[in-house]
Amino acid sequence: MKNSRWKLDKSNWAYVEGWLSIAGNVLLFALKYWAGLATGSIAIIADAWHTLSDSLSSVIVLIGAKISKKPADEDHPFGHGRADLISAFIIGILLLLVAFEFIMQSYETLINRESTTFGTLAIVVMIVSVVTKELLAQFAYYGARKTNSKVLRADAWHHRSDAISSLVILVGIFLGNYFWWIDGALGMIVALLIGHAAYQIISDSIHSLLGESPSATMIEEVKQCCVKLHSDTLVPHHFHAHTYGDHTELTFHICLPNDMPIQDAHEIASKLEDGIREEFGYVSTIHIEPLEYDEIRE
């Protein structure tokens, strides 16, 4: 079935992306750190630690994927799917801490008027970093689009911010011989880019944890499913959705004739609930109203 296949894909994507990221980031960290020490560049060393922080976020991806797969239990009747959101939030906090540390280091570099001499080694390392991190970002983004995983999207942001910071440093390398302050300024720019990514990740995960209104697309799809299963006289309205990773609880109202027997109304509601579960994987609960109370509130 479509829904079970989707769940399997989500688990596989998280594990593959997580382990691939860890391997790639550790190798890039070693390469960047070596280049940073060789050139004395605070920007490159900061970028190296940014890359290593990606490995930690990938570990969080793996842990989050493992927890979110746990089935529902007595304490968590809707499953553990929101571990995905918590993992994304933690990644955002880590990014924010990394950004703050880089701002402080860059500030000290500028205050002390420290300059850096870049060379061919720095250029090669930054080119390798930009290409590798963008490939990892594209892989994570693709998995996020396929599975609607916020933690994969957060990890993709982490990779992308690293690719951008490396690109900024690469551009600055060619200006290093003309401006003594370029290394400190680049470190500051990298930190701001990381902070922006952290803000987006944190705000997105908090927004989802607090609860979101069902999208207009979701409402329209469910309405069309109801029309297909019964008729357009049901007037589906008053939609609410609660998402727990792969598991979505959906509630809404329908209108049925006043004189319809309770058994018939129950059969219609059950048919709609089964059809919605089959089509979208949502577990729905339908409230029945008399037909004259058809004021629509969505």
Main attributes?
298 residues; mainly alpha; Alpha-lytic protease prodomain-like; Alpha-Beta Plaits; 2 domains; 3 strands; 9% strand; disordered C terminus; Cation_efflux_CTD_sf; membrane; transport
Largest sheet, strands/sense/barrel: 3 strands, mixed
CATH class of the largest domain: Mainly Alpha
Strands in their spatial order, largest beta sheet: 1-2-3
Helix/strand class: mainly alpha
Overall outline:
elongated
CATH topology of the largest domain: Alpha-lytic protease prodomain-like
Helix content estimate: 55-70%
Number of domains: 2
Mean pLDDT: 76
Order of helices and strands: HHHHHHHEEHE
Number of strands: 3
Assign the CATH superfamily of the largest domain: Cation efflux protein transmembrane domain
What's the Cα radius of gyration? 25 Å
Percent in strands: 5-15%
Alpha-carbon distance between the two ends: 30 Å
What's the architecture of the largest domain in CATH terms? Up-down Bundle
Spans of at least 5 consecutive residues whose pLDDT stays below 50 are 1-9, 293-298
Written account of the structure:
Strand 1 (237-244) and strand 2 (247-256) form a beta hairpin. With 298 residues, the protein is mainly alpha-helical. The protein folds into 2 domains: 2-210, Up-down Bundle (Alpha-lytic protease prodomain-like); 216-290, 2-Layer Sandwich (Alpha-Beta Plaits). The protein contains 8 helices and 3 strands, in the order H-H-H-H-H-H-H-E-E-H-E. It has helices spanning 2-39, 42-68, 83-111, 120-147, 150-173, 182-210, 216-229, 262-280; strands at 237-244, 247-256, 283-290. The protein has a 3-stranded mixed β-sheet, covered by helices on one side. The protein is elongated, with a radius of gyration of 25 Å.
